[in-house]
């Protein structure tokens, strides 16, 4: 095992479904996040950071492996993560740390490494190989429910009904009525408390690595007092959308499909009907609750900062605060994530390294991606990131430098196949392998390429920042469409699996890079 010497502690925090613009330090007109802002004041805020995929499992696969979806091949919740891939936990463990998890990683384990009857094959909520689990909190939230019960809170409703407003909704209208649990009893507060207790057990001179994976502000969209009324539904930026959902649906076959399948019950338990028909008042009410959930998370971040300072660990801890994917929150008449709009993939990223205070409070306006997190952490721990990773280290930005030949666009992918049910395949009349899209998002243009013969999209972001007008078939934009189609093709060609492509066997043996550190599940 490698010696870790005087390496820093590392705290990796993910907050599920947090939009990048919902930070006061990012100049949001309504949302206030004083504790995230305080972290940014001592670190670096990356203003153009994008997730690599959606929903949770694909997004986290990009973050944890440093590989694009085209290479990690986690397409949906439930797609197994190939055991041959390295990941953030295995890499950190190889450095002598004991990476410790609080929350969840949403990893479906490789079935080829498990016995046919293994119960882990029945859930996509497995733990990323390499992590030690201090507090697991899967979707059923049973550990949290048990903790609530011990505090005297009635939990017979179980998940998800525990997240319903006390007394229920007024029909299908969204109210600000809080749930049965208090602001000190949220799942975020529970996990923060478990981390703080664990922190108190750590030896002062033994560096640690912890991953806090918070579920909020992921739905169900509900939050206790005072956060349920902290924001007025009338406040907030205008929604980015066409004049009607029918117009949105008519703009592309995938949008028509997505708008038709979004159900209110997925965002407020017990609600009936489709999101597209909810109306502005209800969507604004949901948005106010979403903002409140962000402020509730931010309050728990403040609790973490205080605990780190009290433990004497603040000046020895690298902190990464980010999300897996974002949230449309009413844009284009939709809630949730997926598809191709920026609102689903533009996520926060703040990195604070106390050893690099010279850039404290700075903001980076270059395109960065979730696949950059793993190489960045390795670089900050004085390890050369494996060259086959798709991401690049952000360490130069933390030192006030701009890396040479940095990317001029963000890239992400979205796969809408359903191996178990096959509904998208039947709807579009295409094969599972064709149910996908890839995006290249530059400063002025955004190009979306679909599989299965679905029409491509091109948005002129200078004139159309809301992504409302597809100009892919406009003759005036033919050159731009060709340019970005070629850029997307070049991106894919450059990043096709490089695991062994960067090595060559010669008379003198292996020349190049061979990753000898990855271990498969069960090894």
UniProtKB/TrEMBL annotation:
State if Hydrolase is listed as a keyword.
Answer: yes
Instruction: List the InterPro entries hit by this protein, alphabetically.
Output: Alkaline_phosphatase_core_sf, Sulfatase_N
What cellular-component terms does GO give this entry? Answer: cytoplasm
Q: Kindly list any coiled-coil regions of this protein.
A: none
The residue ranges of the Sulfatase N-terminal domain are 8-382
- This protein's name: DUF4976 domain-containing protein
Q: Which UniProt keywords apply?
A: Hydrolase, Metal-binding
What molecular function does GO assign, one term? metal ion binding
């Amino acid at each position: 095992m490698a010696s870790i010497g005087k390496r820093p502690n590392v705290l990796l925090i993910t907050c599920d479904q947090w939009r990048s613009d919902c930070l006061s330090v990012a100049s949001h007109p309504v949302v206030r996040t004083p504790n995230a802002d305080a972290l940014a004041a001592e670190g670096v805020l990356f203003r153009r950071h994008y997730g690599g995929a959606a929903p949770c499992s694909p997004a986290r696969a990009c973050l944890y492996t440093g590989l694009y979806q085209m290479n990690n091949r986690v397409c949906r919740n439930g797609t197994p993560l190939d055991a041959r891939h390295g990941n953030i936990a295995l890499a950190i463990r190889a450095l002598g740390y004991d990476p410790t998890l609080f929350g969840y990683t949403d990893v479906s384990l490789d079935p080829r490494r498990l016995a046919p009857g293994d119960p882990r094959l029945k859930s996509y909520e497995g733990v990323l190989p390499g992590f030690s689990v201090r507090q697991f909190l899967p979707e059923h939230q049973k550990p949290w429910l048990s903790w609530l019960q011990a505090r005297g809170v009635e939990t017979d409703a179980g998940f998800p009904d525990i997240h319903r407003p006390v007394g229920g909704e007024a029909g299908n209208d969204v109210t600000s009525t809080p749930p049965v649990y208090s602001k000190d009893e949220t799942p975020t507060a529970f996990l923060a408390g478990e981390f703080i207790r664990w922190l108190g057990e750590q030896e002062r001179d033994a560096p640690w690595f912890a991953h806090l994976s918070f579920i909020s502000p992921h739905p169900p969209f509900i939050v206790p007092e005072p956060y349920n009324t902290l924001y007025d539904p009338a406040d907030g930026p205008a929604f980015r959308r066409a004049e009607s959902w029918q117009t949105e649906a008519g703009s592309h076959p995938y949008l028509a499909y997505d708008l038709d399948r979004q159900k209110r019950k997925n965002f407020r338990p017990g609600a009936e009907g489709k999101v597209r028909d909810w109306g502005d008042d209800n969507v604004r009410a949901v948005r106010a609750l979403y903002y409140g959930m962000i402020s509730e998370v931010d309050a728990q971040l403040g609790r973490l900062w205080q605990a780190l300072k009290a433990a004497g660990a603040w000046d020895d801890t690298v902190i990464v605060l980010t999300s897996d994917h974002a949230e449309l929150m009413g844009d284009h008449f939709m809630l949730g994530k997926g598809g191709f709009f920026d609102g689903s993939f533009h996520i926060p990223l703040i990195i604070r390294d106390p050893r690099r205070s010279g850039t404290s409070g700075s903001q980076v306006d270059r395109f960065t991606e979730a696949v950059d997190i793993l190489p960045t952490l390795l670089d900050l721990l004085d390890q050369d990131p494996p060259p086959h990773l798709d991401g690049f280290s952000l360490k130069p930005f933390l030192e006030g430098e701009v890396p040479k030949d940095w990317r001029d666009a963000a890239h992400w992918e979205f796969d809408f196949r359903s191996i178990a049910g096959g509904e998208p395949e039947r709807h579009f009349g295409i094969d599972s392998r064709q149910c996908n899209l890839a995006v290249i998002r530059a400063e002025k243009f955004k190009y979306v390429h679909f599989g299965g013969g679905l029409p491509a999209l091109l948005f002129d972001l200078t004139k159309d920042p809301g992504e409302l007008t597809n100009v892919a078939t406009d003759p005036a934009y033919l050159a731009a469409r060709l340019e970005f189609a070629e850029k997307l093709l070049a991106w894919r060609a450059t990043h096709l699996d490089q695991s062994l492509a960067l090595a060559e066997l010669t008379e003198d043996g292996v020349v190049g890079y061979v990753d000898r550190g990855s271990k498969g599940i069960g090894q």
